[in-house]
Every structure is written in C-alpha cells, then in structure tokens.
Please model this.
Amino acid sequence: MEATVVGAETSADVAVVGAGPAGLYAAYCAGFRGLSSAIVDALPEPGGQMAALYPEKKIYDVGGHVAVRGRELVDNLTAQVAPFNPHYLLGRTAASLTPDDGAGWAIGLEDGGRVRAGAVVIAAGLGRSVPRTLPCLRPYEGRGVAHHVPRLDEHRDRDVVIVGGGDSAVDWALALVPIARSVTVVHRRSAFRAHEYSVKQMYAADIRVLTDAQVTACNGVKGLEEVCVRISEEEVMLPAQALVTALGFITNLGPIADWGLQMENRQITVDIGMRTNLPKVYAVGDICTYEGRVPLISVGFGEAAAAANHAAVELRPGSRLAPGHSTDRDATPLS
Ligand SMILES: Cc1cc2nc3c(=O)[nH]c(=O)nc-3n(C[C@H](O)[C@H](O)[C@H](O)COP(=O)(O)OP(=O)(O)OC[C@H]3O[C@@H](n4cnc5c(N)ncnc54)[C@H](O)[C@@H]3O)c2cc1C
Model:
C-alpha cells in the first residue's frame, strides 16, 4: 500500500494536489482505507498557508486543540499520515490533468514528472503562492534571503533583517528576539498594518525598527553578509546573515483553471461527496465551493474525510462508504 516511483513517474491510488491541512488529512483518510497516496505541492514543505504564512501563530478553533501553533498542527498532520507512507513531491507544481488509460488520471508536473492515480483529490487552497520580493534580493535567495521562517532555531545567533509591515513581519520579529543576535524590521511606510498590540510589543522589545525605509542592496561573497537600507536620503549598512521577506504572497490558481473543472468564482464546485464534474476527481478545502461553505481548517478536514471515503468506494466498488471506527483498528497509528 505504497506509491511506486519509476524514474520521473509516481503511481498511487490517490494523487493529492496540495499539502495544506485538507490535503494532508485527505492522504491520512485514504491511507486509513488502505489506499496509497502521492502528495504534490509547489511549496518546499508541507503545511500550505499554515506553514507559509503563520507557522508561529496560535490557532484556537481546531476541534480538540485549545490552542495550537500553525507549525505544530502541520507537524501533527504529517506525523498522523506518516505510517501510511505518502509519497511527497514537494517544490513541484501540478501543471496538467489528463485521463490515463491504465491508471485513471495522470497529473503532469511542471518539471516534466508525472503522477498516475486512480483518483485525484485537489486540495490546492488559494492556488499557487508566489512570495512578493524585491529585485535586489533575488541573487541571495537561498543564500540568506528567505520568504518565510520554517524553523525559528535556524536563526540562532544571526543578525536577521525582516522586511515588511504586516502581521507576519511583526510576529516573526517578536518570535526571533530571544533567538537571533539582532533583529531589525525594515518597513517602507511609517505605520504598521500589523495588529496594534503586536506593534506595541515590537517597539517595546529589543528590535531595531526602521520605518520609511527600503532595502536597496545586499552584499556578501558566499552568502548574505550585509544589507543596505535607505532611510529618507541616508543609507545605512546593516550586518545580516539572514533577511526574511514578509511582503505577502501573490496567489493564483495557476494551471488548475485549465483542467476542465466546473468552477465558480475561481473555486471548484463540488457535490456533497466532494465530487467535481470529472469522474474520480474530488476537491476539498479552500479550493472547493458549495452553497454555504465556511472557509475554516476544521471544515476542510471534514471535506477531506468525505472525499477520501467516496474515492475508496469508487476505486473499490462494493466497499462501504463508512470507514469504520479508528478505535477498532489495531493498525491505527496511535502507538
Ligand atoms: C494569517 C492567517 C490566519 C488564519 N487563521 C485561521 C484560523 O485561526 N482558523 C482557521 O480555521 N483558518 C485560518 N486561516 C485559514 C486557513 O489557513 C485555510 O482555511 C487553510 O489553510 C486552507 O487549507 P487548504 O488545505 O484548503 O489549503 P492551503 O493551506 O492553502 O494549501 C494549499 C496548498 O496547495 C498548493 N498548491 C496550489 N496549487 C498547486 C499546484 N498547481 N501544484 C502544487 N501545489 C499547489 C499550495 O502551494 C498550498 O501549499 C488563516 C489563514 C491565514 C492566512
């Protein structure tokens, strides 16, 4: 019950497009039904919006968690699905969806790879997210410049510059103060868009805040060593081994819009079994729509469970829709 990989081709019972909470949980529910899965995501790590936009924020409205940080929920979801060995294709964009004679569906990846699967669960959220950046930062991407902070500890004893004025910029600055050697926030306006309370905390903390300021150049031989910031007419050089952009993301549905799916306002319409207009293709989470949908993580979990169990019935005709209670299964990965 594992995906097989031969050269650039991966075969699985279920292909999941999107490794956000809905996609990860769909892979878990598929695994629970004895189905193998391959999970494709354009981002370099699983977690979708939680990992990319708010790993350190606390989420208060996921059932069973009084409060859980984005990062922690992602870690729990990947740990929950791990016993079923999903095959991750991260940093890979799903570009096309075409019928496949043998398997059912073939997903063509932008880099030439292919995923063949009997059923497809599209859990692509808001679509592909491309971080906003500044031209002068591009040469140092991956060499000190990053667009998010997957693990705070990476920045231990570094001089970190954070660029932006929204919640992510301020939250990362506050989270990094106890870890980094120095933290500087550079914002091109005088007022921050972030939550007022967090902004007050930032000004009270050991954080250098440069407003009406813009990063104009980066220097360094192997990696980033210093950042040049223009404040009014003055230029300041800051030592920096890390620069984190928090300028937001440009999201677009990308290639999914051309897959022949019935859509409404750039979301995929589904029925109560999360079925799209294409056979054995399901949509769950923020990418799907139906009357009255509430865009919450917890709702996406329910949709993922529905899609995976309907897929199980369609892939194994005669099997029951209800998966049975996980408490009755020795194989349930709790131990
Ligand atoms: C700041 C912030 C705070 C939030 N707080 C809460 C909260 O407190 N409670 C709550 O319930 N919700 C909250 N949300 C909303 C919640 O994050 C989303 O509802 C949830 O992430 C949707 O999950 P998803 O799995 O549908 O999609 P996403 O998390 O968006 O994941 C979709 C994934 O699909 C990938 N993808 C898209 N297109 C392709 C493609 N063609 N090929 C490969 N990969 C692709 C993307 O890279 C992405 O990783 C918050 C959102 C934000 C931005």
